[in-house]
Design goal:
The structure holds two protein chains of two kinds. Chain A is an alpha/beta fold. Chain A has helices at about 10-15, 25-30, 35-45, 60-65, 95-105, 125-135, 150-155, 160-165, 200-205, 220-230, 260-270, 360-365, and strands at about 75-80, 115, 145, 170-175, 175-180, 185, 215, 240-245, 275-280, 285-290, 290-295, 330-335, 345-350, 355. In chain A, the strands form three sheets. A six-stranded mixed beta sheet of chain A has the order 3-2-1-12-13-14. In chain A, strands 4-5-8-9-11-10 form a six-stranded mixed beta sheet. In chain A, strands 6-7 form a two-stranded antiparallel sheet. In chain A, helix 6 (about 125-135) packs parallel to helix 8 (about 160-165) and helix 10 runs parallel beside helix 11. Chain A is globular. Chain B is of the alpha+beta class. Chain B folds into two domains: about 1-110, no CATH class; about 130-225, Cytochrome Bc1 Complex, Chain D, domain 2. Chain B has six helices and seven strands. Classes of the chains: A alpha/beta, B alpha+beta. The interface of A and B includes residues 304, 323 and 326 of A.
Chain lengths: ~375, ~230
């Protein structure tokens, strides 16, 4: 299944080097059968090393990161994102894809602390689509954390979504990490003047390449809220931000973009460790701006092609997806929050080898396969 | 009817152009007015459509054209306006010999009111009006393709082409025809379009000459204008 031949013993040795807090999980690993062992170790141990893109020393890098001084971290959460559901019955291809993802995260052993949903639950913001999404996500065993996407929002400006899932921006603390969830798909009113109906407005926003819409932004209201929310947080506390759009500027014509990204980044600048996880881009996507690490999430519905320009140098591109395979380029994944508060990001690509981008790689800027990395070719 | 109106319009414009010439009040004889002039000098007179040009030989650019000769120039321009869309250059020699040329070809003798001795290049030298019409016609097809590419009416499950191919990225029409490995045969772009319609979009394949297929191809290819053709590339 995997290209290199890490023996069980070798993995055992490497895990043994990790701290005691991992030992329980290692024990659970060693007690399961071989197939489950591979799957589980993949989920939480950067097994993508085996996918040849990540060198074996990523295990050592985990150790380095682990040795960082401040607290927090040392847990894992999973994600499902961009399901784009239509309310067209349980046989729809996108429903099948969500069920596949739900099965994945429910099979994780040990279970993730929570499951992040990255936004765009619905395709056209219809109540039936959102309700179907809620019904499917209710099958997830772990607690859910929701991000709102533009496809969920622009039919009724979030009314149904908020009824089902509550606030569209909020924060919470978990095991020493401060999590912030933003609604980054706020668009300035482009519809009133033109007299668009709610359905037309939704259809325009749902068109990734539809230039009639406004750029995404977090907006002043949420930036004010974020400022006061972060005031009470110590600068050494690891911060993890969830947003639907990338909180930086990649490619404006597809809204791979947040218009007030610099302002939001400025609010996060005083913190030692900041990670942003975002949906919307449906692809492997990695970036680093000053203290902030950015990771994209995979979609269950379809992969986007890479934008014609603006791709960050830290990104290792995924292989071109085979259109004849519904699940190629799609998937789900998990995030290992290290003791340092940095994260190792696992992409569980359903039809390609899984990939991991570790915190240490991103911090060092040496990411094998990335355009910006001129180190040895693997 | 419309054509007559256009011709009438052109003639009116030519008439206005003729008015710009300064008429010499002393009424000198046209030919004799040029006695002593620099035979190598010439002055260009444009019709108002900027497509008909008379090169008046023997007159310096800063020199007034004598009235009788100015009348010849005006008559000549009016006459050439019969060929509304054409760019024609006429030469009025000191001897009053008239030659015309178009598209950089050789000058041929010309008699005002007579047949044009040159073949105006209709093909390959489109007029601005023609170019506007052609561009509008193409845009109509491309825009219909744009609409279909972004709509859910081609498939049956809500999925639209643009959901995987924003701005038609990833369609690479310039690589067709090619051996499409998944289809196990050489495919044209339209074969892949039909495959997408039938599979991810769960719709009915279009006939190859279906106007919707033409529109989709037009949109996809228009997005890749300027790309090098690389038939067979994978």
């Amino acid at each position: 299944m995997y290209r290199n031949n890490l023996t069980k013993k070798e993995i055992e040795r490497r895990f043994a080097e990790r701290s005691d807090e991992d030992s329980a999980r290692i024990r659970s690993l060693l007690n399961c059968d071989r197939r489950q062992f591979l799957r589980t170790s993949l989920e939480f141990a950067g097994m993508a090393a085996a996918a040849s893109l990540v060198p074996l020393h990523s295990f050592q890098l985990v150790n380095v990161a682990h040795a960082a001084e401040d607290g927090g971290g040392g847990f894992r959460f999973a994600y499902i994102s961009d399901t784009h559901l239509y309310d067209r019955g349980m046989n729809h291809r996108f429903v099948k894809a969500v069920l596949k993802a739900v099965e994945d995260v429910n099979a994780m052993d040990p279970q993730p602390d929570f499951v992040l949903f990255g936004g765009d639950l619905a395709q056209l913001g219809k109540p039936g689509e959102l309700s179907l999404g809620k019904q499917l996500l209710n099958e997830v065993r772990a607690p859910l954390k929701m991000i709102v996407g533009e496809h969920d929002w622009y039919l009724d400006l979030g009314e149904k979504w908020r009824e089902l899932f509550g606030r569209d921006y909020y924060s919470f603390d978990h095991k020493g990490v401060h999590f912030v969830v933003l609604n980054s798909v706020v668009e300035k009113d482009f519809w009133t003047e033109k007299g668009y109906t709610p359905e037309e407005r939704m259809a325009i926003v749902a068109g990734l390449d539809d230039s009639r819409q406004s750029p995404f932004e977090v907006g002043e209201e949420q930036r004010d809220w974020l400022r006061s929310d972060l005031e009470q947080v110590n600068r050494k506390t690891p911060i993890v931000v969830f947003s639907h759009s990338p909180l930086y500027k990649l490619y404006r014509p597809w809204n791979f973009w947040t218009d007030d990204a610099e302002e939001v980044q400025a609010l996060l600048r005083r913190f030692k460790t900041v990670t942003v996880l975002h949906g919307h881009t449906h692809q492997l996507l990695t970036n680093r701006i000053r203290n902030i690490h950015f990771h994209g999430l995979l979609s269950t519905a379809w992969p986007w092609p890479y934008a014609p320009e603006g791709l960050p140098n830290y990104t290792v591109q995924m292989n071109r997806a085979d259109p004849f395979d519904q699940f190629d380029g799609c998937g789900d994944g998990s995030v290992e929050v290290l003791a340092s508060g940095r994260v190792d990001k696992h992409y569980n690509l359903w039809s390609q080898n899984p990939r991991t981008v570790t915190a240490a790689q991103l911090a060092s800027g040496k990411i094998p396969g990335a355009r910006g990395y001129d180190g040895p070719a693997y | 009817m419309k054509r007559n109106l256009v011709i009438a319009g052109c003639l009116l414009l030519a008439g206005l152009a003729a008015l710009v010439f300064e008429v010499n009040p002393r009424g000198e004889d046209a030919r004799h007015g040029l006695v002593g002039a620099d035979e190598w000098a010439s002055r260009a007179v444009w019709a108002c459509d900027r497509r008909k040009l008379v090169v008046v030989e023997g007159v310096r650019p800063d020199q007034k054209i004598p009235p009788a000769r100015a009348q010849l120039v005006a008559d000549l321009l009016m006459d050439l306006m019969r060929y509304c869309d054409q760019e024609i250059t006429a030469k009025l020699e000191v001897s009053e010999r008239i030659t015309v040329a178009a598209n950089g070809l050789v000058y041929e003798d010309y008699v005002v009111g007579g047949p044009l001795p040159i073949v105006p290049a209709r093909y390959g030298a489109p007029t601005r009006r023609e170019q506007r019409i052609w561009a509008a016609e193409l845009a109509k097809l491309v825009s219909e393709g744009d609409r279909l590419f972004h709509s859910d009416e081609i498939g049956k499950n809500g999925v639209a082409c643009a959901m995987c191919h924003p701005h038609a990225v990833g369609t690479h029409p310039e690589t067709y025809p090619k051996f499409q490995t998944q289809l196990k045969q050489v495919a044209l772009l339209r074969d892949m379009v039909n495959w997408c319609i039938a599979n991810p979009m769960e719709g009915d394949e279009l006939a190859h000459d279906d106007p919707r297929m033409k529109a989709l191809e037009a949109y996809i290819i228009a997005q890749r204008a300027g790309k090098v053709l690389e038939s067979g590339k994978h």
